[in-house]
Write a structure and sequence with these properties.
67% of the residues lie in helices and 0% in strands. It is globular and about 60 Å long. It has 18 helices and no strands. Helix 2 packs across helix 11.
Length: 406
């Protein structure tokens, strides 16, 4: 495969592209973020057999990395231009407005899910406690301090930990935009320095007052991935060349690291080559500090970059391989699928919040029907249909159809 020039491939948002008509959205961004939304739904349906086959079961990184990286790229388009067009203060105000939206999305999501679980327990129709299944009994047993904790983000239940992390990372954007005036080296050095300090645990944030549990996603670790995506879309980091060497390096890292990042793959190796599995087991403890999810360990970063590079190569320049040519039934079907996935990716916040609530209720339905092949298939397909519907509904509201068009 020949090396190609990457200069224009990411369509970066630069100072010369700040007019409203110049907002270029990379089709690969919405496609892969849409894929992440479907994976996140599967991952959060309780005891969904399909979750055994999501990317998280085969390596260090998972759909969370896709979501955070693509959010960084989307933020470069949505907010980066505001800093250039309107200056640092109004750019910061634009980010603050987004933080306000995400904050209330987090609060409303918590209270809706908590209410739903309480209603299920209060109905007397179920033997299990759905409140306890989410470890929310502390909230209901002693609501006064936990109510304060929810609004101050000092009480972050495990199921509700992604959006708080996203909030803090967004709040760091004005800092990095200010540093970008000094130079990209200042942005990169600061981001790496914060990530390194986060690896020590010093920057851990408390998740609940009755224990020493920390936020499951430490934003000071995860900001490295977010601002990597941000830097690519801003054009601060050039797109990598398409070369056989890099393709082989990325593929080999994914394959060779799989037994260390996936218990499923390790068991496969143990079954096929017990001696090799024992050697992997001996090395395993040494990799622990580099694969942690809370502080976003180095191996997770390298694993995702390898996966993202291959996905970028597969999609082709400007994502042209995602678009099937021809008038065959297969090509037309793929275009429909591509359109649906892209729409979900474009409305990721609305889809994410809805899917987190819907996943719990789908799990309740599966508790009643059982988890045989047919019921699991139907449940997941209904979930997919619902998040697609939410994406189109959110897009319709955003279009403000009640306003007259000039």
């Amino acid at each position: 495969m020949a090396t190609v020039s990457p200069a224009s491939d990411f369509a970066p948002v630069t100072a010369s592209a700040v007019a409203p008509t110049a907002r270029v959205r990379d089709p690969r961004l919405d496609f892969y973020r849409g894929i992440a939304m479907f994976i996140i739904l599967i991952a959060h349906i309780p005891n969904d057999p399909w979750a055994k086959w999501i990317p998280a079961r085969f390596g260090f990184s998972d759909a969370t990395e896709i979501f955070v990286f693509c959010s960084g790229m989307a933020s470069a388009i949505a907010f980066g231009g505001a800093f250039l067009r309107k200056g640092w203060l109004l750019g910061t105000a634009r980010v603050a407005f987004r933080i306000w939206q995400v904050y209330w999305a987090h609060v409303c999501l918590f209270f809706f899910v908590a209410m739903s679980m309480a209603a299920l327990d209060n109905s007397g129709l179920f033997e299990k406690s759905y409140v306890s299944s989410l470890n929310l009994q502390h909230f209901f047993n002693d609501p006064l301090p936990q109510m304060v904790g929810i609004f101050t983000l000092t009480y972050v239940p495990n199921y509700f930990d992604i959006l708080p992390m996203y909030l803090v990372v967004l709040a760091m954007m004005p800092l990095f935009m200010a540093l970008s005036r000094v130079g990209f080296w200042a942005v990169a050095a600061t981001s790496v320095a914060i990530w390194l300090v986060a690896q020590t645990g010093i920057l851990a944030l408390p998740a609940e007052p009755w224990s020493d549990r920390q936020w499951f996603f430490n934003p000071f670790g995860w900001q490295l991935l977010f601002f990597t995506g941000f830097a690519f879309m801003r054009g601060w980091i050039p797109a990598p060349p398409v070369s056989k060497s890099l393709i082989w390096a990325a593929a080999l890292f994914l394959i060779l690291s799989a037994p260390f990042g996936s218990w499923k793959v390790f068991l496969w190796v143990q079954s096929a080559a017990p001696g090799l599995a024992e050697q992997i087991r001996d090395i395993w403890p040494m990799t622990k500090e580099f694969r942690g999810k809370t502080e976003f360990g180095l191996f997770r970063y390298l694993h995702f970059l390898s996966l993202a590079y291959l996905g970028w190569v597969i999609a082709g320049e400007h994502g042209h391989r995602l678009i099937a040519s021809g008038d065959s039934v297969g090509a037309r079907a793929w275009q429909v699928v591509l359109k649906l996935i892209t729409k979900v990716g474009q409305q990721s916040l609305a889809v994410f919040v809805f899917s987190m609530a819907a996943a719990r209720l789908i799990g309740v339905a599966l508790d009643q029907t059982g988890r045989d092949f047919a019921s699991v298939f139907v449940a997941n397909m209904i979930g997919f249909a619902m998040i697609i519907g939410v994406a189109y509904l959110a897009a319709w509201f955003k279009s403000q159809p009640w306003k007259s068009k000039k």
